[in-house]
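quick one, 441 residues, struct below
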Amino acid sequence: MAGQRHLLRPGSPLVNLATDRTGAAGSVSVILWGPPGTGKTTLAQAIAHSSGRKFVELSAVTAGVKDVRQVMEDAFRNRDLYGLSTVLFLDEIHRFTKAQQDALLPGVENGWVILVAATTENPSFSVISPLLSRSLLLTLEQLTDDDLGVLIDRAVTDARGLAGTVELDPEARAAIIRMASGDARRALTALEASAGTALAAVEGAGAGGHDGDEDDEDDEEAGGEHPLPVITPEVLEQSVDRALLRYDRNGDEHYDVISAFIKSVRGSDVDASLHYLARMFEAGEDPRFIARRVIILAAEDIGIADPQALPIAVAAAEAVQMIGMPEGRLPLAEAVVYLATAPKSNAAYLGINAAIADVKAGNFGRVPKHLRDAHYAGAKRLGHGKGYKYPHDTDVGVVRQQYLPDELTGKVYYDPTDHGHEREVSARLAKLRDITRGTPG
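---
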């Protein structure tokens, strides 16, 4: 098993479950939560087969309550008649309805089955509480590049894989790892497709053009062997129907695409925004990274021109965290469409930057005495709070009063635009400054 070392240490629940043949470790059910291609199914099969238990696999996509009850009846019979425990692996348990998950409870509670359920979505929201409380929740982590490298190298040489029939160019190996983005299934699929292309090219070259007698004789005289087909980056790009090989999560293409995405949203080109969003999705970019950029975009480039932009961006980020991918692409896409079509303003962004620049440069003074804290002993003797005017005591809720330090009196940081909601803010702000400062604007 490559990866998931935190779950496979000696004495861990999974290891105990897989190695226990006596039942001493109990019948603890397990929920495996993690991204696609991290080994959930592999772990379930290892638990079943290495422990000598009967293994039954169901998919929540196709199975119903009737299928679950049949498994429970068979498991009950096998336990009582033959003393054989059953491991039920249920893939995509989040797709089961509440009624379907309820059907699992008797078998789990009574120990007829050891449930090993897999999900890509947060079990706290997708698995019923009684089932969750009776199971051990284990979180699988996305595979590292080193883990993927181990899997790829093993697949090239192992008899159950390509059995050494091809060679893998180091650049192509690195490209597969980048493209897989922590998904072992994606990496092995790309490797298999590329090997097929490389082998087909060699077979095609050997079948055409000449009778091959002279070449064969030369090869035999030289005592050499036919070289193995090589999977190169070019072969990989031909085999995988995605132009992802140039997308390096830590390289120039990563920064180029995210830069183009940000500038497209800022420039209000919704189609270009969705295009670059799709490129990041297909390249396996971390959706949490995208969600963070969307939140920053809402605050920096839209601001008060549309006060709903930031809440929508935050809601999209929370939705991605809650439901995962690929469904998480939908709230992210909605947020991007909203932001790209919203009125734009960077006035708040410029305002806070200007204020920070003044503070860093030492352009600040003492807080005016009437604004200082007057709640501690001796504060009034120092004049703190004296002369402060409480805005709620007036009809309009605003009073003329100095709020900035003396050194910054009259300073303007926030200069709203006439875009969207900020047009209304601009008119109101002019009146507010007229009252608080006694000067228009």
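The first helix runs from residue 13 to 19.
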